[in-house]
Design a protein that fits this description.
single chain; mainly alpha; 2 domains
Length: 78
């Protein structure tokens, strides 16, 4: 088994005094973090197609104009 930081060890000890529903919620968060750290993100077919089209546009030199970017920033209050 790997090492555990002192901070995490203290947090786990403190969590032992929590009600079971709160312990379950904490366990769910840690399990979710573990799944995120141990898996690769898989693009959907739609995401892959969008990415391929964006890369093709970039290769063709098709970028947003300064005016388009300024308008987008303005629409979003930036």
């Amino acid at each position: 088994m790997g090492q555990i930081s002192k901070r995490l060890e203290k947090a786990v000890e403190a969590a032992k005094a929590w009600p079971l529903d709160r312990q379950e919620a904490a366990a769910e968060v840690l399990e979710h973090m573990h799944r995120l750290a141990s898996t690769s993100y898989k693009l959907t077919d739609e995401e892959r197609a969008d990415l391929e089209e964006a890369l093709a546009e970039a290769r063709r030199g098709e970028f947003a104009s300064d005016a388009d970017v300024a308008a987008m920033f303005s629409r979003h209050g930036l």
